[in-house]
Amino acid sequence: MKKVKDSSITVVQQMTQQDANLAGNVHGGTIMKLIDNTAGIVAVRHTGRQTVTASIDRLDFHCPVFIGDLLRVTAGINFVGKTSMEIGVRVEAENVRTGEARHTASAYLTYVSLDEHGKPVPVPPIAFETEDEKRRNREALERRKRRLAEKGQEKRIRADRECN
After folding, report:
1. CA 44 to chain centre
2. SS3 of 62, please?
3. CA 144 – CA 150 distance, rounded (Å)
4. Ordered structural domains, the chain, with CATH
5. Other C-beta atoms within 10 Å of 30: how many?
């Protein structure tokens, strides 16, 4: 059985002028792309298969990132279902001159594992070993319940619109 640490990863990239607006703040979309890319690497490392982003459950920006900052994007699996998995991502920005690090963003993404025909396939099970991994798994289960309830509500609303 695979462990969380087997697929977890940290990607570091320095932010440049092309990543930012005229005020020197890095675009949220640039950070979003790095989050999705990093989480995608975790998904492929865990499944050994093609995966796709099914949803971004939550993405919160806590403070700005500036030109010159090192962006550290850390991702790991929080939950594994039948064909999907939730990956949690933490983003920190480090001022390379002062060494000050700031927690700048957090996100939860759901990925689906696909076969060679693009159809969902089972995701390998995972072992949550540390207390932190177990806590993150419990929290991911709660988010999953909320996601599924919201999807059910959205389906009912669509069905009501189609019938009226």
Report:
1. 13
2. coil
3. 10
4. 2-163 (3.10.129.10)
5. 17
Strands 101-114 and 9-14, bridge-based pairing = unpaired
Quickly tell me which residue has 């709660």 as its tokens: 142
Q: Are strands 101-114 and 50-61 parallel, antiparallel or unpaired?
A: antiparallel
**Rounded Cα distance, 72 and 91, in Å:** 6
Q: What is the pLDDT of residues 35-54, one digit of tens each?
A: 999 999 999 999 999 999 99
Evaluate whether 81 touches 141 at the Cβ level (below 8 Å).
no
This model's pTM is above 0.85: yes
Helix (H/G/I), strand (E/B), else coil: 156: helix
User: DSSP assignment of 95-121, as one string?
Assistant: -TTT--EEEEEEEEEEEEEE-TTS-B-
Regions of the chain where pLDDT drops below 70: 163-164
Residue type, 82: K
